[in-house]
Known about the structure:
The structure holds 2 protein chains of 2 kinds. Chain A is an all-beta fold.
Amino acid sequence: xxxxxxxxxxxxILEGKNCTLQCNYTVSxxxxxxxxKQDTGRGPVSLTIMTFSENTKSNGRYTATLxxxxxxxxxxxxxxxxxxxxxxxxVVSANSGYALNFGKGTSLLVTP
Amino acid sequence: DGGITQSPxxxxxKEGQNVTLSCExxxxxxxxxxYRQDPGQGLRLIYYSQIVNxxxxxxxxxxxxxxxxxxxxxPLTVTSAQKNPTAFYLCATQGIxxxxxFFGQGTRLTVV
Lengths: 112, 112
């Protein structure tokens, strides 16, 4: 069964600090992995998308890494801001069909 | 965002009523999806459609129905058979190549 596991479930950090969120998956055959940011009460917005051959991809202060061998990804947030407070969702797509496999998300709270 | 419009943003339903959630897109994407999001849980797939006049059940289709008469539109009806419909509903689309999925801003449905 295709599964996506995210950790930690929730995280609280001080403004200006860095943090790393984790995503492990068992989706096969792998097509791509995406990180989304979801603000409360709004739809998810894409941060990064990586295919099998990509190890790292950045989007401003967000840097995603992918290790397709160990089936692990991380999202690193640098110099956090209050506006980074949100849920971060890892989504893994398989080659077969249009199915999207969602993690449960990591809830991040950045405090002053 | 990104050309996907969900309406209404908030919806209240009396027990025993059917209600229809709207999802319209101008991205010319083939695939459209409906997800349900409950607190502390990941997104769960209700229905998806890859082409006009065709759709497939997702993991939690019971009590829901959809139609895909036009490429741009994929309305979701929450029927009285859905015993616990209070949730946040998200519509998403995905184009050819399945590289990225775009989400609407969601509809929060509450049973009163």
